[in-house]
Amino acid sequence: GEGDPLHVIGGIPTVSNDYSPAWDLNLGVWTQEAISKGYRARVIDEFQYLQLVEDGWITGPGGQPFGSTGIVVNCPMVIRFL
């Protein structure tokens, strides 16, 4: 891919009760078909991202099913939303 990875998170501290600094790493890549059709774009919303996975436009690396890599990253948020 090009550029840095973009993090899409499901919960933000003080806004969501399910936030955890331990992130289950899920890697997704655009399919070649999505790229050919010009569907590739920056996605920042968890539900939009999961819909793109469900529709088959994003998969795991190498065409594998999208899901957990088995890697947990300790990545606490450093900004607080009130």
Could you say which structural class the secondary elements and strand pairing correspond to? alpha+beta
The average pLDDT is 86
> Uncertain spans, ≥5 residues at pLDDT below 50?
none
What is the overall silhouette?
globular
Number of DSSP-assigned strands = 4
Q: Give the radius of gyration.
A: 14 Å
What percentage of the residues does DSSP assign to strands (E)?
A: 15-25%
What is the chain-wise order of helices and strands?
A: EEHHEE
User: Into how many domains do the coordinates divide?
Assistant: 1
Task: Please tally the helical runs, counting DSSP H or I stretches of 4 or more residues.
Answer: 2
The description of the largest β-sheet is: 2 strands, antiparallel
The helix fraction, in percent, is: 10-25%
SSE blueprint and pairings:
Layout: E1 22-26, E2 29-30, H1 32-36, H2 46-54, E3 58-59, E4 68-74
Antiparallel strand pairs: 1-4, 2-3
What do you see in this structure?
With 82 residues, the chain is of the alpha+beta class. The protein has one domain (1-82). The protein has helices at residues 32-36, 46-54; strands at residues 22-26, 29-30, 58-59, 68-74. The chain is globular, with a radius of gyration of 14 Å. It starts with 21 loop residues before the first strand and ends in an 8-residue tail after the last strand.
